[in-house]
Amino acid sequence: MESNPTDVCYESDHTAESEFNVINYFNDDDSNLFFHRVDSDQIIYQPRQKKAKLFGQYIMGDILGEGSYGKVKECLDSKTLCRRAVKILKKKKLRKIPNGEANVKREIGLLRHLNHQNVIRLYDVLHNEEKQKMYLVVEYCVGGLQDMLDYAPGKKFPIWQAHDYFHQLLRGLEYLHSQSIVHKDIKPGNLLIATNEVVKITDLGVAEVLDIYMTSDICRTSQGSPAFQPPEIANGDEEFSGFKVDIWSSGVTLYNFTTGKYPFEGDNIFRLFENIASGEYTIPNELDSSLAELLRHLLEYNPANRPTIKEIREYSWMRRKHPQNTERVPSPPANDMLDAHHRMSVLPYLEDLHRVESTDDGPSDDDKTSKHHQLAPPSPSVAKKQAVQKSKKSTCRQS
Ligand SMILES: Nc1ncnc2c1ncn2[C@@H]1O[C@H](COP(=O)(O)OP(=O)(O)OP(=O)(O)O)[C@@H](O)[C@H]1O
């Protein structure tokens, strides 16, 4: 077969063409062909433009985490410019989880009425019937205490840090109890940390509201995490004091904060409940005797002997100021270890939303029809530019 220069060149650069978009210049008679070779070091990779997504007045950011009910994303409230988190719940998924829908309904019903510094705030609930999704807009937190423990040396907090967090847990719990609510699932995994080290009790999905006309805190059901359940639940008692369940779980939580371990363990839930029901556990010798004394009382077998929150505050370990002689365990970095400062992930999406493609002569055709403009709130472009600058500058108000 007769070959011409074109064939030869084409074959030799075939891979380059398919991978790097080689540009061919042909002249009319096809006799002068240039292959513009591009080496890999000449290629400029640009990060993929983040496409803005809005729902209601909220602009979505990156994923913060994922639970059994769905994803949690960061978002920005465009009205208040406050940083928030949004739990995205797929209704289909909820129906598949035992008590899923009921738990979410209960949590929403409860959170709507609660307002305390140490309990997560619910700001908004939105539905998308078409997508069968539900959006719960809550306070933004930088992480969870369980994630912090997982990263911490020995999987525990320094005593002074554990002391601070436990104090805050008691404050939040005291508020819930004052509202006749038994949380029933207190554990590090349900304690988030906001900016300024403020602990937030979250996940009220299995909480119970006591009848306000009842004088006791008797409960009959429990769905909490097994390792944090008290002997009366492990034994299958039909009735038990709800508040004392929360005191026991707080005791297991404090034990975990300060030792990195659990008082009761088991290969499976049956073994675990057997161990809890036996009431036998040890407190590591290295713990201060005043802390050991508090833990023993929190983990009293008989719920009636467990202290109330008011009484807990009187223990010498609680009243003491603990020296900050060890470094604080930080909240784990966001975005797979990349961002230790938890920068706001909504910004790149905001930039996409407010990208100005117009010239001085007015908006370009692209601008007039772009999706960004359909999505953006109807405000003049100047105001948009200002909003971007403002949101870049401001560290968002936290309430
Ligand atoms: N308000 C929030 N601010 C920041 N991150 C959050 C917030 N709420 C949850 N997250 C992150 O999202 C993850 C999933 O949270 P979610 O409450 O849906 O599930 P979970 O409590 O971890 O698990 P499950 O509900 O399955 O027991 C959390 O582990 C946390 O990392």
The residue-averaged pLDDT reads 81
**Total number of β-strand segments?**
15
What would you say the CATH architecture of the domain at 143-319 is?
A: Orthogonal Bundle
Structural class label: alpha+beta
Strand order of the largest sheet: 3-4-5-6-8-7
Summarize the structure.
This protein is an alpha+beta fold. Among the domains are: about 55-140, Phosphorylase Kinase, domain 1, CATH 3.30.200; about 145-320, Transferase(Phosphotransferase), domain 1. It has helices at about 5-10, 15-20, 90-95, 100-110, 145-150, 160-180, 230-235, 240-260, 270-280, 290-300, 310, 315-320, 335, 345-355, 365-370, 370-375, 380-395; strands at about 25, 35, 55, 60-65, 70-75, 85-90, 120-130, 135-140, 145, 180, 190-195, 200, 210, 220, 240.
Question: What is the topology?
Answer:
Layout lengths: L4 H8 L1 H7 L2 E4 L6 E4 L17 E2 L2 E10 L2 E8 L5 E8 H6 L3 H12 L10 E7 L4 E7 L3 E2 H7 L7 H20 L2 E2 L8 E3 L5 E3 L6 E2 L8 E2 L11 H4 L5 E2 H18 L9 H10 L10 H10 L10 H4 L3 H4 L14 H4 L9 H7 L11 H5 L1 H5 L5 H13 L6
Antiparallel strand pairs: 1-2, 3-4, 4-5, 5-6, 6-8, 7-8, 9-11, 10-13, 11-12, 14-15
Helix pairs in contact: 6-8, 8-10
Bound molecules: adenosine-5'-triphosphate.
